[in-house]
Each structure stands twice: as C-alpha cells, then as structure tokens.
Amino acid sequence: MAALFMFSSNSTIKAQGDWDVGLSAGMSNYIGDIGDGTGPGRAFIWDLQELKSRPAFGVFVRRKLDPSGLWHIRSDFSKIHIAGSDKNTQYAPRRGRNLHFRNRMVELSLRLERDLFQAPLTLARQRRAMITIRGFVGVARLYHNPQAQLDTGNVMYAEFSNQFRFDPNRWYDLAPLQTEGVAYETSITTIPFGFMAVIAGQRRGGIHDFYLSLELGVRWTNSDYLDDISSFYADPAQMVGIGAALSSQANQAVLDEAGASAGSLSAHSFIEDAPVIRGNPTNDDWYGTFMVSFGKVIQPRGNTFRRSRSQYRNIRKVRRSPNRRRTRY
C-alpha cells in the first residue's frame, strides 16, 4: 500500500505510488427506533438487530498526501443497505407496534486518514508485509429511501382496502407518504469515522504493491428518519390511504402474541388531542459498516522503466540491421 513505508529509505519512498484504487464489501447495520433486547432502547451498538445486518459494497480511490506516508485522502462510492423489524425484538410494546423498514442507500464520501501504528510482518523467507492501524474521519453525502410493506392484518389496511388497491408484496417508498405528517430530506450529510487494519504485501525492494484491510466505520447523521420512525402517529385523515395503512401497522394477532404489556390497538395509532408516541424524537439515527477491502497501488513508470524500453528497442534494431557484419567460421 502506498501509505505503508515508514521504515523505508528515501529512494524506496520515491518509488512508491501516490495513488491506489480498490473494492470493498461487507455488512451494514443501523441504530435507530427499531432495536433489539427486552427494553425500550439500549445504548449504541447494544440495540442492534444482528439478524437484520445487510450487505454493503463500494469502490474507492486514495491518494498519499505527504512524503512520510502518514496522511492520505480517500474518496468512496458505496451502496449500503440497512433494515429493521419490530418482529425481531423481545420488548412487548415495540413488538406490538409492528413496524419495519428497509433502506437501500447510496453514499459518496471524502475522508482524511492517518496512520497510528505500523509494524513489519514476515510471511515467508522472502515474502514480507506491513501491518498498519489507521484512523479516519470525513464527510459524506447520503441518498436514502426508507421502504415498507403492508401487514394485511393491520386495522388501517382493513379500513382502506375497499377504497385502494393495495399490494402486500410491494415495497412502498415512505418519504413521499409522510407517515408521521412530516416532510423530511432523503439527501443528508453524514460524518463517517472509524479505524482500519491494513496488511500490505511487498515486492522485491520493499515496494508495496497490494493490500488487504479490515475496516469498522460509523456514520453520525442529523436525521431521525432513516427508518421513517421518529415521533408521533399522524392523523390518517390527512394522508392518502396507503400512507395511513403504513403509518400504523398494529395487528391484534401480533398484540395477543406479544402479551398484555404490548398495549392495545389504540396504543399504536392516532388519537385526536392525545399524541401517541411512535418513535423516539430525542435521538437521531446512526449507521455503520464492517468492510473487507482489496486495494492495488498504482506504481509510477519512472526513468528506469523508460530507459529499459529504449535499450530493448535499440537491441532489436541492431539484430535486424541488414548492414550488420556476420562472423564466418
């Protein structure tokens, strides 16, 4: 990797490529109003629904910023999926709410990276590598689109199904429907930060040619609507039928299964002059990724390379020259 040459000589440093490109793939998840456990919510990653981890993948390009190789700047284009379902929680009121979502997001990011620790590794007698621990922080633009399906057992579905043609197999875009009576942005700015461990392979002469890395990244957001859940149930009379049916998905069969503490249908639907909580408006949503990356260093074609090509062409010309004297035996 272009960054991993802290212990190299100046001549080796000049031989390293300033650019590298690569591919990333892994898993993603989120922290929001749908969570795990036996309580209303737990701090940070303890509220993750591990069963709802979804794939993430992307491409990136990185550039070295200084001769020492400590600082880099990297740009990523990523597809990140997150999801959650109240059916996967053990907390009865959340389970009785019976909401769910998926969000297939696109992220464009620019981040600054700094090497924190580095050490050589010996993989074989003549094969060496370097391991580096690196931290990063940056800024990203996220394009997201929360979606949900209809639960045919919810009260609103029964009320509106005679007026509208519903498709329970379809994933409906939730932002245009304003299921909480709130218009929110589906393009937001996030702050990515995290750590990565990089193992870079060395060619002869100590030049880094390729690398593998493991990365744990977290994104702070200023939105509470990655899951389309934030505050209170809205008046279904102010929505189109499909929006009302997706706003409250309380199902009597699910409530009975969850137990008495799950509440009644009215505890999970709009009541005039008595706002009913639907989410937690005090905390914004977060999301994160665990990625494996493969990168390739772009090596410069120096003067030595150009000189070698020129010498090779001259040798070929001499061999093909018709005036070349032949020695007779």
Topology:
Blueprint lengths: L9 H6 L3 E13 L22 E11 L6 E15 L6 H6 L2 E25 L2 E17 L2 E3 L6 H6 L11 E2 L13 E16 L5 E14 L19 H7 L4 H7 L27 E13 L4 H18 L9
Features:
329 residues; disordered N terminus; elongated; single chain; Porin; eight-stranded antiparallel beta barrel; alpha+beta
Quick take:
The protein has 329 residues and is α+β, with helices and mostly antiparallel strands. The protein has helices at 10-15, 92-97, 155-160, 241-247, 252-258, 303-320, and strands at 19-31, 54-64, 71-85, 100-124, 127-143, 146-148, 172-173, 187-202, 208-221, 286-298.
Describe the structure.
This protein has 329 residues and is an alpha+beta fold. The protein has a single domain, classed as Porin. The protein is 15% helix and 39% strand. It has helices at residues 10-15, 92-97, 155-160, 241-247, 252-258, 303-320, and strands spanning 19-31, 54-64, 71-85, 100-124, 127-143, 146-148, 172-173, 187-202, 208-221, 286-298. Strands 1-2-3-4-5-8-9-10 form an eight-stranded antiparallel beta barrel. A hairpin with a 2-residue loop joins strand 4 (100-124) and strand 5 (127-143). The longest helix is centred in the last third of the chain and has 18 residues, at 303-320. Mean pLDDT is 84; it is low at 1-15 and 303-308.
